[in-house]
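A.,

Following up on our hallway conversation. Structure tokens first:
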């Protein structure tokens, strides 16, 4: 009997991706505006990468460290922003919504139950397909 081998594209997407519980904990902390809660789900050496499409000049490079990364994530939230957990590229993720418009998509990698790398896409060109009618 041979062991089933999953296709390479499927193996890559699962490796290192944060699980749904980690992303839900981040969603709860973001929705509550709880910076301590955001820091609690991040690894001490977490990296935040923001793709703003040039709209946020300060996001030119990765942001290193739990404290600075948590502040960067908290800055994305406004009183009108809601957080929805969803699947992004076959891995658990978050979508930040203001009104009827998706303003950010968030995915992460985790290790030992803490998020080590967090990617935030705020680039309107890359979020266009999220804003084309019924979603989520």
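Then the amino acids I'd put at each of the 136 positions:
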């Amino acid at each position: 009997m041979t062991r089933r081998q999953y296709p390479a594209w499927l193996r890559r997407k699962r490796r290192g991706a944060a699980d749904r519980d980690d992303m839900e904990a981040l969603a709860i902390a973001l929705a509550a505006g709880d910076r301590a809660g955001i820091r609690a789900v991040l690894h001490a050496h977490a990296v935040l990468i923001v793709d703003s499409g040039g709209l946020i000049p300060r996001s030119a490079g990765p942001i290193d460290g739990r404290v600075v990364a948590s502040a960067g994530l908290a800055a994305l939230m406004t009183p009108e922003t809601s957080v929805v957990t969803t699947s992004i590229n076959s891995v658990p993720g978050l979508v930040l919504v203001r009104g009827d418009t998706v303003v950010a998509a968030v995915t992460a990698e985790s290790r030992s139950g803490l998020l080590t790398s967090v990617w935030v896409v705020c680039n309107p060109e890359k979020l266009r397909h999220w804003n084309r009618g019924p979603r989520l």
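Helices lie at 8-14, 20-32, 35-41, 66-75. Curious whether your intuition agrees with the design.

B.
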